[in-house]
Specification:
Helix content: 40-55%
Radius of gyration: 19 Å
Shape: globular
Structural class: mainly alpha
Strand order of the largest sheet: 1-2
Largest sheet: 2 strands, antiparallel
Order of helices and strands: EHHHHHEHHH
Number of helices: 8
Number of strands: 2
Distance between the termini: 25 Å
Strand content: under 5%
Length: 240
C-alpha cells in the first residue's frame, strides 16, 4: 500500500539518514573528549534534576564506574556497550534523557525497584536505547528509496512513500510515521528521528510494564510484543 500523496523528498533527507547510519556503524571513532562531553551531559540529565538520586556507589560523575549500571549499561565503561550504534546511539540517549526527564527517571526507578526486590522483570535502558537507534536509523533510511536523478530521467524531487519494513530492521513504519518523518523541513529530520526514538522508548516502557517479562525473555518480548505493537502506539502518540 502506498501513501496516496507524493511528498518532496530531497537529497538532504537521505544525507542525514545515511550520515546517522554511517556514524552508527562505520564512522570515524570520536575522541575521548567527545565521549566525555556526551557522558557528562547524560549523567547531568539523569541525576541533576533531583527526580532520582545518583547511584550510591557513584554519587558524582566518573568516566568509568559501577554507577553506569543504573542507566542500563552492562560494564563500567559505557562506551563498550555502544557497539553498532556508536556516537549516534549515545547522542540519541543523551537527547532522550534531556527531553524526557520524567520518563527517563521512571525507567531508572523501575529498574532500581526490581533489583531491590530481587525481581526478574528489569531491563537495560541504555541497551534498549542503543538497539532502537540502530533499527530506527536503518528503517528511516531504507523505507523510501532516493528519487531518480534528472540525469537518469527522474525529477529528483518526488517519490511516493511506501511503508514497507526493510529486511534489515524489524521496526515497521506506518503511514502516519512516514508522513511525520518526511513531510517537513529538512532541518527537522534529525530532530524528528530523535523524537521517534523517544516515542519508541516510551512505547517500550509501557509494553514492558504491562507484560513484565523475565529479563532473559527480552528478545522474545521484542519479537512477539514490542515490534508488532509499537507502531500502533506511536501513531496514537502522534495524533495527540
Amino acid at each position: 500500500i502506498e501513501v496516496a500523496t507524493a511528498f518532496h523528498v530531497s537529497g538532504e533527507y537521505f544525507k542525514i539518514c545515511k550520515g546517522r547510519r554511517l556514524a552508527a556503524s562505520e564512522g570515524i571513532v570520536p575522541t575521548e573528549e567527545v565521549y566525555n562531553t556526551l557522558l557528562t551531559q547524560l549523567w547531568e540529565a539523569s541525576f541533576s534534576k533531583s527526580l532520582v538520586a545518583p547511584p550510591s556507589n557513584q554519587p558524582e560523575f566518573q568516566r568509568t564506574g559501577d554507577g553506569w549500571a543504573d542507566l542500563g549499561f552492562q560494564g563500567k565503561d559505557p562506551i563498550t556497550d555502544l557497539r553498532g550504534g556508536a556516537l549516534t546511539a549515545l547522542k540519541d540517549y543523551v537527547v532522550f534523557a534531556q527531553n524526557n526527564a520524567a520518563l527517563h527517571a521512571a525507567m531508572i526507578q523501575y529498574n532500581r525497584d526490581q533489583h531491590a526486590t530481587k525481581g526478574t522483570a528489569w531491563f537495560l535502558e541504555a541497551c534498549v536505547s542503543i538497539q532502537l537507534t540502530v533499527q530506527l536509523t536503518t528503517t528511516a533510511f531504507d523505507v523510501v528509496p532516493p528519487a531518480p536523478s534528472p540525469s537518469t530521467g527522474g525529477t529528483g524531487k518526488m517519490r511516493k512513500l511506501t511503508p514497507s519494513a526493510p529486511s534489515t530492521s524489524p521496526l515497521h513504519f506506518t503511514h502516519r510515521i512516514i508522513i511525520y518523518l518526511y513531510d517537513g523541513p529538512k532541518e527537522e529530520v534529525q530532530t524528528r528521528l530523535q523524537t521517534l526514538h523517544a516515542l519508541y522508548m516510551r512505547a517500550f516502557f509501557e509494553l514492558w510494564k504491562r507484560e513484565k517479562p523475565f529479563i532473559m525473555e527480552y528478545q522474545g518480548f521484542m519479537e512477539k510484543t514490542f515490534y508488532p505493537e509499537a507502531s500502533q502506539l506511536i501513531e496514537a502518540y502522534l495524533q495527540r
